[in-house]
Specification:
Number of strands: 6
Structural class: alpha/beta
Radius of gyration: 18 Å
Distance between the termini: 18 Å
Largest sheet: 6 strands, mixed
Shape: globular
Number of helices: 4
Order of helices and strands: HEEEHHEHEE
Length: 202
């Protein structure tokens, strides 16, 4: 989206304590292309669901130094490597805010790597399991995992605030939204952009 980098960069400039500026993801679904008088019709996309918060690299802007603290991505992971990295960053208490505007247009089509919903979910659950395991063992006596910090939002006026939630943000899926989700066609696989949080969370 226009001005995405400009707005996120301004947050980093204004708030030195923030290392990651995330934003909202707008999911776009590919639809039947319309003829434009050529042999290659133009592919069309339409909005699907309300904008949502997601652990997606494309929706965020990072300080270079945050990678020295959190480390790099797990090269062994095929799915949810971004979720795994964001979880590690949150566990370390890295300063992160969510800018309340769309910062990524996520186009969903037949060639998406995350098209295989089963493998995508398996990767997500594995990243979540590893996070819980790490947080269980950060205490002297292993037990319930240490809670993750609540997400902080920043509005267009630069004001910080938090939003009430009755569920851990990382566990809230898009399917909990009030927006109805159409059932996928037979043989089709439902996809989410790196496992978004619910619009309710957003």
């Amino acid at each position: 989206p226009a001005h995405k980098l400009q707005h996120q960069l301004q947050v980093l400039r204004d708030r030195p304590e923030v290392d990651i500026v995330n934003g909202y993801v707008q999911l776009l679904q590919a639809v039947e292309p319309q003829s434009n008088g050529t042999d290659q019709p133009m592919r069309q996309f339409e909005q699907r669901f309300a904008p949502m918060v997601s652990f997606n690299l494309g929706s965020a802007l990072f300080r270079r130094s945050v990678f020295d603290r959190v480390g790099y991505f797990d090269a062994q992971r095929i799915h949810s490597e971004d979720v795994d990295w964001f979880m590690r960053a949150r566990e370390l208490g890295v300063g992160m805010v969510v800018l309340e505007e769309v910062t990524l247009l996520y186009r969903k089509h037949d060639s998406n790597l995350t098209r295989d919903r089963q493998e995508n979910m398996r990767g997500f659950l594995d990243a979540l399991r590893k996070s819980i395991h790490r947080r269980q063992h950060t205490q002297e006596t292993p037990g319930a995992p240490v809670a993750l910090p609540q997400l902080t939002y920043i509005n267009t006026a630069g004001e910080l605030h938090q939003k009430d939630s009755h569920l851990p943000a990382v566990l809230t899926q898009a399917r909990t939204a009030e927006t109805p989700i159409p059932k996928p066609a037979e043989g089709d696989a439902e996809e989410s952009p790196s496992h978004p949080l619910s619009p309710k969370e957003a």
